[in-house]
């Protein structure tokens, strides 16, 4: 029997953790606590979870940000997800430095992963995402 696909960002994070990724603390956003004020807005993500990857050594304690692990954003449709991917990737390319990160898109899901990873380490997230939705 085929395993059901995750219906929201929390389920994607749970599946990634079950796949063996070093996911520690998580923060699930709502429309009222989303710092970007995008959750649930037209054309934006419908669920979002930030997570800490425990293999990243950082001086920032108790911060659940992309720089300390990553973020999963889920959208109503692939077009909205692609638009967000293009926007985020464009900022990283244009601004570089503190805005650099790895971004992976699979259908309606965008995963943003810390620049602190080596390319090979970041690819683990891309592989986990593809495996979840294959």
Structural class: alpha+beta
SSE sequence, one letter per element: HEEEHEEH
Number of DSSP strands? 5
Q: Shape from CA axes?
A: globular
Spatial ordering of strands, largest sheet? 1-2-3-5-4
Distance linking N and C termini: 14 Å
Helicity range of the residues?
Answer: 25-40%
Mean pLDDT: 92
* SS summary, helix count: 3
Strand content: 15-25%
What is the number of domains? 1
- Biggest sheet character: 5 strands, antiparallel
Radius of gyration: 14 Å
Uncertain runs: none
Please, could you describe this protein's structure?
- The chain has 134 residues and is an alpha+beta fold.
- Helices cover 32% and strands 23% of the residues.
- Strands 1-2-3-5-4 form a five-stranded antiparallel sheet, with helices on both faces.
- β4 and β5 (109-114) form a beta hairpin.
- The protein is globular.
- The two termini are 14 Å apart.
Q: Could you give the topology of this structure?
A:
Elements: H1 9-18, E1 23-28, E2 47-53, E3 69-74, H2 78-95, E4 101-106, E5 109-114, H3 119-133
Antiparallel strand pairs: 1-2, 2-3, 3-5, 4-5
What's the gist of this structure?
This protein has helices spanning about 10-20, 80-95, 120-134, and strands at about 25-30, 45-55, 70-75, 100-105, 110-115. The protein is α+β, with helices and mostly antiparallel strands. The radius of gyration is 14 Å and the shape is globular.
Please describe the structure with a list of short key phrases separated by commas or semicolons:
single chain, 134 residues, alpha+beta, five-stranded antiparallel β-sheet, 3 helices, 5 strands
């Amino acid at each position: 029997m085929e395993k059901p696909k995750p219906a929201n960002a929390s389920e994607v994070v749970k599946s990634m953790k079950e796949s063996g990724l070093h996911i520690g603390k998580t923060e699930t956003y709502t429309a009222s606590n989303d710092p970007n004020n995008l959750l649930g807005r037209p054309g934006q993500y419908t669920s979002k979870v930030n997570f800490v990857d425990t293999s990243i050594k950082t001086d920032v304690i108790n911060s659940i940000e992309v720089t300390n692990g990553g973020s999963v954003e889920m959208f109503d449709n692939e077009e909205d997800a692609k638009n967000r991917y293009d926007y985020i990737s464009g900022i990283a390319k244009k601004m570089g430095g503190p805005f650099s990160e790895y971004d992976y898109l699979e259908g309606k899901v965008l995963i943003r992963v810390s620049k602190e990873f080596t390319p090979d380490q970041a690819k683990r997230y891309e592989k986990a995402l593809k495996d979840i939705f294959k």
